[in-house]
Structures are given as C-alpha cells and as structure tokens.
Design a protein that fits this description.
By secondary structure, the chain is an alpha+beta fold. It has 6 helices and 11 strands.
Amino acid sequence: MAFSLTRLGLAGLAGIFVLAGGESFAQQAAPAGKSNQTQSAAPAQPQGPIRLDLVGTQPQWTKVCGHDQAADKDVCYTTRDFSAQANQAPVLAVAVYDIKGDDTRIIRLLMPVGLMLRPGFRFWVDNGATLDGAFEICFPNGCFAESRVKGPTIDEMKKGTTLNIAVRNQANNEVTFGVPLADFGKTFDGPAVDPKVLEAEQKKFQEELQKRADEERKKLEAEKQGGGSPTGGAAPPTGAPASNPAPAPAAPAQAKGK
C-alpha cells in the first residue's frame, strides 16, 4: 500500500467523517438558555474557561501503516475520533505519526471551524509541561493543526490518562478539550490494522451516523406537522452530521519542522 505523507492524514481523519464544525462547537460552548443566533447578535460576554471532556466515537484507537514512495519511508499513524457523546458525530480527531528513521513525531488534529487561528493551540498530558502547535489549513468542515514532538512526549501520552488541547473560540474564551488516552500506547506499539477491516469499520460507522441523522430529521418533521416549533421540540444531538455530507477536502501540505 503506497501513499504520501500528506494523503495519510485524510485517510484516517477527514476521509471517514464530516465534522460538525463551528455550529456544533458553538452549541456546546454557548451559555445555557441562549441560542446561537442570540449569541452572534449580541456582544460577546466574558464566560471564563470552558472545558469539554470528550469520548471516543470508535471502540479503540486505530493504527494504520504504509510506505511513502516519494520519501521512501515507512509511516504509521495512530488515530481516533472524539465527540461529547459516543453516539454523536465527531467534533475532533487526533492522529500521531511515526516515521521510520525519524526521531520527530507529528501530532495532527482535525478541529472544529469557528476558532481563533492565530494563537494556535496548546496541549499537555495530564499535569505535564505545556507544548505549542499551529493551525495549518482550514476547510468548510474542519481545520488541520499540528505540532512536531520528540519521543518523550509520546512516552507521556502512552502512560498518561488525558491529552488536554486548549484553543480559543470567537469570543476569545479558552476552550479545553479533554481527550482520553486509554489504550493509546498499546495501539501505538502494536500491529497495524488490516486495511480491509479498517474500510469496513469506517463504512459501518458512517452508516450509523447517517441513520441517526435521518431519525432526528424525521422526528423534527413530525413535531412541526403536529404543531410544535423547533424551539419547543427536542433538539437534535449536538454534532449530528448533515444528511448530505460534504466530500473530503484536498490534503494539506506538511508543516515545516520547528
């Protein structure tokens, strides 16, 4: 199996789902009782730090390996998608690249849109030292961000409990995503998944997301026909995917080493 380093990320991230993006992020970060429309119309008010502890949308981390023909190097990445609830569409994805013969690893994130890009992001494992990363490129369904790290950081992730990722939203409030690291080390050091098995799992996952989105849409349509209003009925779960997901964007270029 041959593929380039730049295509590798999309195969494990954007290629298997469409992020809920800024809409989902705003719904989760907005104060209770306020709609997104009200929030955008009124001046932003200080809200203080926001924390969102995420859960994996797949049973476990996945390791995929291949050969980069252009660089003539073997590459593996360990990845997983995360959301506020296991039955919701992903709002964030993490992939850690291990390039054979290179002591630098790449931590790549697929983040929601609607964030302040210039500050970049910060991340740390449990209560460890804080490291910096930068956004690389954004598409309508999400933004790629990455940081280059050395082996000790990966060792911390293997032993750690939570990867904390801090960004700033449009109101300049800090939002911290808590990503669970359970079984990350086992998968990172273990064998790669069979590509055919991975493809089947991705297809099943997409079908499940589509089914839930269709059920929520039918529920809302039934409420409207019965005289209910969008605000009076039950809202669809935050992060529900669109009924017609957008195609995966072109792969971003690799960031220059720090």
